[in-house]
Write a structure and sequence with these properties.
Blueprint: H1 2-22, E1 26-28, H2 31-47, H3 49-55, H4 57-62, H5 67-82, E2 86-88, H6 91-112
Length: about 120
């Protein structure tokens, strides 16, 4: 279980790093902050995101799932709010960071195999 979390945190860190390089408005001060942001994002996604998902389920269904981008951006924004060295300037930057992080995680899981099969 810990190994799965570490692998997910590595992909989250890679995605956040890529987002900080290519998405205007996303900045990470240093490597330590990047690692901490990835771990914190994993914790937020494990505990906060399911509650937010259930609360926003009607609008998610109404938008055919596109509102999940806003939910994911909100989780990244929450991490930025909690962590002083990680900055996300606005909703658009958060959505773009969520897309980059999500695609990075998806590619990582495709390359290494789905960890949920264990």
């Amino acid at each position: 279980m810990l190994a799965k979390f570490i692998v997910r945190a590595i992909f989250a860190a890679l995605g956040l790093w890529l987002a900080s390089r290519f998405v205007p408005g996303v900045r990470v001060d240093d490597t330590g902050t990047l690692i901490l942001a990835a771990v914190l994002l994993g914790i937020v996604n494990a505990f906060v995101r399911p509650v937010v998902f259930v609360l926003t389920l009607p609008i998610t269904l109404l938008t055919l799932g596109l509102f999940l981008l806003v939910v994911n951006a909100a989780m990244i924004g929450l991490v930025a709010w909690l962590l002083s060295g990680f900055h996300v300037d606005g909703l658009v930057a958060g959505i773009l960071a969520a897309i980059v992080t999500g695609v990075t995680s998806w590619i990582g899981y495709m390359v290494l195999g789905d960890a949920r099969r264990d």
